[in-house]
């Protein structure tokens, strides 16, 4: 059994390290890799301790076990977005080592290795399950699977500690420990392998989510790109058509953006675009959509709202930009023009709405900077 667990630990270490190197070098993946490396060392020293019947080697085994748990909890906290994710687990790990030495000195090796350590592992596995489900990334199916495995692992370790309680004071290897040994031999490999598989699936799920995000989100501003806009617009317009509701769409561009870039450089242009995107995000409602179509060109989708009300939202955006200036562009103010169109009268596709809003935007820009025009209106 120990040989198989060593092999599984090494495979998990290699797989997670490759995932870390190839896919974003996220710290929690590296911590998981180190955790399984410590598990491999723990199983190796455990094998040597059993073969040589060496107390010091059992102590080294316990050290690597506690270190593996500390790294695993730190990884889960880091993935969940906790600040200083290692501090609390390291504190618990040091406390466990000190308490373990005291328990072994007072009550013997079984009290430490067969009762205290499983109880400690149970507590830490439960902590990992909670951290996994409280991640700010959102809860995915892979996260539920991993949290479920960790919760099951925690319950198993608690049962293991309970089974060992009657053995306190006995000599290691006593025949009375058959229930504990049976539980240990049958359960540890299952939960250890299951936790490794669940961790790999969660890393793969994170990678898939990140790839989808990169495909749909503009990297400079964090809003949707053209592809993301097309996908969500299809859903919004379909729902609006099904429920017989209106959707307004606004196309907007920064006024004199090209001259700003020519005078103050590419960095000033990027800053203007990011400031503009942030102003758009702050001004829209939950459920509204902000997307960047390219350069300084943005699109707003405003469901369940008429064009006249969309113009009020646009005016709020322009007011927010009025007090905003770019220090890197000589204090130049940001001004923008908007064109607005609305579904209805056979206009129910993104392409048609953008085309009409473009015509309205052209009218705005002809009228001067910082203007708004609604398609079909005379003002």
Describe the structure.
- This protein is an alpha+beta fold and 379 residues long.
- The protein has 2 domains: 2-216, Rhopdopsin 7-helix transmembrane proteins, CATH 1.20.1070; 226-374, Alpha-Beta Plaits, CATH 3.30.70.270.
- Helices cover 68% and strands 9% of the residues.
- It has helices spanning 2-22, 27-52, 55-79, 87-107, 109-133, 141-164, 178-216, 226-243, 257-264, 266-283, 307-322, 350-367; strands at residues 247-254, 289-294, 297-303, 325-326, 332-333, 336-342, 372-374.
- It has a 5-stranded mixed beta sheet, with helices on both faces. A two-stranded antiparallel ribbon has the order 4-5.
- Helix 3 runs antiparallel to helix 4, helix 5 (109-133) packs antiparallel against helix 6 and helix 9 (257-264) packs across helix 10 (266-283).
- The protein starts with a helix and ends in a 5-residue tail after the last strand.
Give, in spatial order, the strands making up the sheet with the most strands: 2-3-1-6-7
How many separate domains? 2
Give the distance, in angstroms, between the N- and C-terminal Cα atoms. Answer: 81 Å
Largest sheet: 5 strands, mixed
Unreliable sequence segments: none
Give the total of beta strands: 7
- CA-based shape: elongated
Number of helices: 12
Rg (CA only): 30 Å
Enter the CATH topology name of the largest domain: Rhopdopsin 7-helix transmembrane proteins
- What's the average pLDDT? 87
What's the SSE pattern? HHHHHHHHEHHEEHEEEHE
- The helix content, as a percent range, equals 55-70%
- Briefly, what CATH class of the largest domain? Mainly Alpha
**What is the second-level CATH architecture of the largest domain?**
Up-down Bundle
Residue fraction in strands:
5-15%
Structural class: alpha+beta
């Amino acid at each position: 059994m120990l040989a198989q667990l060593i092999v599984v630990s090494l495979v998990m270490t290699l797989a997670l390290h490759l995932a870390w190197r190839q896919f974003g070098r996220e710290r929690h993946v590296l911590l998981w890799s180190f955790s399984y490396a410590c598990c491999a060392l723990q199983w190796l020293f455990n094998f040597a301790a059993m073969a040589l019947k060496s107390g010091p080697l059992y102590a080294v085994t316990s050290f690597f076990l506690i270190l593996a748990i500390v790294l695993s909890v730190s990884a889960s906290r880091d993935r969940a977005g906790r600040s200083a994710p290692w501090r609390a687990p390291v504190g618990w790990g040091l406390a466990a080592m000190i308490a373990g030495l005291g328990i072994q000195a007072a009550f013997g090796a079984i009290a430490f290795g067969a009762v205290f350590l499983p109880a400690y592992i149970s507590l830490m596995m439960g902590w990992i399950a909670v951290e996994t489900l409280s991640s700010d990334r959102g809860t995915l199916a892979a996260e539920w699977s991993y949290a479920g495995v960790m919760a099951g692992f925690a319950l198993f370790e608690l049962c293991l500690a309970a089974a060992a309680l009657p053995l306190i004071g006995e000599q290691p290897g006593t025949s009375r420990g058959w229930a504990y040994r049976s539980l240990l031999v049958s359960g540890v490999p299952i939960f250890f392998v299951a936790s490794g598989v669940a961790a790999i699936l969660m890393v793969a799920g994170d990678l898939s989510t990140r790839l989808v995000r990169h495909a749909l989100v503009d990297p400079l501003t964090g809003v949707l790109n053209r592809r993301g806009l097309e996908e969500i617009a299809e859903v919004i317009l379909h729902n609006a058509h099904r429920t017989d509701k209106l959707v307004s769409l606004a196309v907007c561009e920064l006024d004199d953006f090209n001259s700003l870039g020519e005078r103050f450089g590419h960095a000033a242009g990027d800053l203007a675009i990011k400031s503009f995107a942030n102003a758009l995000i702050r001004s829209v409602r939950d459920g509204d959509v902000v997307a960047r179509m390219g350069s300084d060109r943005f699109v707003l989708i405003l469901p369940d709202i008429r064009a006249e009300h969309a113009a009020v939202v646009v005016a709020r955006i322009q007011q927010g930009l009025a007090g905003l200036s770019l220090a890197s562009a000589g204090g130049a103010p940001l001004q923008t023009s908007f064109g607005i169109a609305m579904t209805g009268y056979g206009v129910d596709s993104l392409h048609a709405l953008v085309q009409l809003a473009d015509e309205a935007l052209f009218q705005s820009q002809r009228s001067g900077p910082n203007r708004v025009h609604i398609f079909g209106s005379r003002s």
